[in-house]
Write a structure and sequence with these properties.
The protein has 374 residues and is of the alpha/beta class. The protein is 36% helix and 16% strand. The chain is built from twelve helices and 15 strands. A seven-stranded mixed β-sheet has the order 1-9-8-5-4-2-3, with helices on both faces. Helix 1 packs antiparallel against helix 7, helix 2 runs parallel beside helix 7 and helix 3 runs parallel beside helix 4. The longest helix is centred in the C-terminal third of the chain and has 19 residues. The radius of gyration is 21 Å and the shape is globular. The mean pLDDT is 96. Bound molecules: pyridoxal-5'-phosphate (PLP). Pyridoxal-5'-phosphate binds next to helix 3.
């Protein structure tokens, strides 16, 4: 298939054992969810993150839906989460019948501003959903302290954070449960895919049951609870196992790519680059984002159009939850304002960041950015 842009925003690397393992699935006939690659993938990622259980599902959004449901969050409950994130986070809460409660993001790291969390705790708060974005983790210690103080659950959205750590503790190892996505732009991909990780045996069993329509071992077609078919196929897991074998190499490669971009783009007045290092982590540059300062007379959409003229694929930043028409129609977030999220949503974009990107392409993109912006 031809790419619309010579330099696409994302191109994965699939040149390890992916093809070999897929051929194994096809030759053995194990293509649905009952093949061995699913269990290998679950065990492999759980071991990497230091969790007891992995439950592979069809995508990261499904992992969030299932995780929220498995924690028993429902009508009357509130979940605190960042306004600056993908809609999957808030929609998992809304689909469960609970209420999302928002906090703004930090203007430098673009992650949730953890100093705003405590003020949002009410007697109805059941959980804090932390979402690590673009390559730097959320500052977890203050969140864990608040969760502990008020007896709240923590759901860790590590969809973009394979191979990252917070103060040497792997991302995906925090809270009651964490989730990952394996969409094609993630550090490891299965095409579409996701996983829930937890140390809690009962929660893991509940997630497995909900993933599988609530089938029961003793009487398969008799259901005590409504679930979903969120299963991952053996074909997807085969790709995941091959990708996981290379996670460390992929993370190192992403870090090199991010540093190269930063070295080439440094010094452009009013162009905000990703934070390279925080006190608690070094960036893994899942996606290389930039934010245009007010000095630029154009916004992110116009910058994207300029870069498209150079055949460079880009993506806009997320659009805040409180500005989503779908939630406004539901009467959510009325009158709420989160200026940092509103600002970066309009002035942020990310540059080609896929693992297949070459140094030559990064140099070309950086030159085009300078030409377009300076
Ligand atoms: C932070 C975050 N959470 C959740 C998801 C949802 O994952 P998926 O696309 O696999 O449904 C994504 C997707 O990219 C994401 O970036």
């Amino acid at each position: 298939m031809s790419q619309p842009f010579p330099i696409p925003v994302n191109e994965p690397l699939l040149d390890g054992n992916e093809k070999r393992y897929l051929v194994e699935c096809i030759e053995s006939g194990w293509v649905s969810s009952e093949g061995l690659f699913v269990a290998h993938f679950e065990e492999g990622l759980a071991a990497k993150v230091g969790r007891k259980h992995g439950i592979a599902v069809s995508n990261g959004s499904a992992a969030l839906e299932l995780g929220v449901a498995a924690l028993g969050i429902g009508p009357g409950d509130e979940v605190i989460l960042p306004t600056f994130t993908i809609i999957s986070c808030a929609s998992a809460v809304v689909h469960a019948g609970a209420t999302p409660v928002l906090v703004d993001c930090d203007p430098h790291t673009w992650n949730m501003d953890v100093s705003q969390v405590e003020a949002k705790v009410t007697p109805r708060t059941r959980a804090i959903m932390v979402v690590h974005l673009y390559g730097l983790p959320v500052d977890m210690d203050p969140v864990l302290e608040i969760a502990d103080k008020y007896g709240l659950k923590v759901i860790e959205d590590a969809a973009e954070m394979h191979g990252q750590a917070y103060r040497d503790r792997p991302c995906g190892s925090f809270g009651e449960l964490s989730i990952f996505s394996f969409y094609a732009n993630k550090h490891i991909t299965t095409g579409e895919g996701g996983m829930i990780l937890t140390d809690d045996d009962r929660l893991a069993e509940h997630c497995r049951s909900l993933r599988d329509l609530g089938f029961q071992a003793r009487r398969r077609f008799v259901h005590e609870e409504l679930g979903w078919n969120f299963r991952m196929s053996n074909l997807q897991a085969a790709v995941g196992v091959a990708q996981l074998e290379r996670l460390d190499e992929f993370v190192a490669r992403k870090r090199r790519m991010g540093k190269r971009y930063s070295a080439l783009l440094e010094g452009i007045p009013a162009l905000q680059l990703p934070v390279g290092s925080a006190a608690y982590a070094d960036n893994i540059y899942w996606a290389y984002g930039v934010v245009l300062g007010e000095e630029f007379e154009f916004d992110a959409e116009q910058a994207r159009a300029l870069l498209a003229q150079h055949k460079i694929g880009t993506r806009p930043f997320f659009w805040p939850m409180h500005e989503q028409p779908v939630f406004q129609k539901m009467g959510l977030f009325k009158g709420e304002a989160y200026p940092n999220a509103e600002y970066i949503a309009r002035r942020g974009l990310y540059l080609p960041s896929g693992l297949a990107l070459t140094d030559k392409q990064i140099d070309y993109v950086a030159r085009a950015v300078r030409k377009a912006l300076c």
